[in-house]
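task queued by scheduler; priority normal; single chain, no ligands, no partner chains; default sampling; output format set to C-alpha cells
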Amino acid sequence: MARRIALAIVVALAVAGPAHAFTCPETPLGQRIDQADGAFVGRSTGFRVAEDDGGIPQRVYTFVVDQRVKGDIGTSVEVRIPALAENGGQEIPEDVAAGVLMGNAGGTWVTTRCGITDPGALLSTFDEPRGQGIKLVIGLVILAAVLAYSIRRVRRRDAAAPARDGG
C-alpha cells in the first residue's frame, strides 16, 4: 500500500508541469528605490479593471499621494497592477497606507506586488542621512577656524599684558 502511494506521488510530480510562481527578487529597498522610475506613500481609493488589450489582466488603482518619494507624481496617481497573483498581482485595500515603487511604461505607471512595500520602511530608507563625509569635513574646518581664532586671541592678550616681576 505504501509503495502505491509513493508511486502515485512520483507519477504526479513527473506529470506536473513546471511551477509558475511569481517571486520577488531579494534586493535591498534602497537599491529598489534607485531602480524605480517613481515611488510614493499613499492610500488606494479603489480600482477599475483595465481594458483588455489581450495581455495580462490588470487593475488600475487610484492612489491619493501622502508623500512623494521619487518621480514626477501629483497629488493622485493611477497605477496598473496585474490582477492575478501568478502574474505579480496583489489586491490593495482601500484607505490603507502603502509604499509603492513603480516603473513607467509608455507614460503609464505600472508595478507588481514586488513594488508594494511598507510605507514606514520606504520613507525611512529614502530619508536615510546622506553626505556624512562632507558634514564631517565641514565640521573639522569650523573647528580649525575656531581654534586658530582662539589661539590668536590668547597670543594677543599675552603680548599686551604687562610683564610680571618674578620676585
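post-processing summary
- The longest helix spans residues 132-160.
- Helices lie at 2-15, 29-35, 119-126, 132-160.
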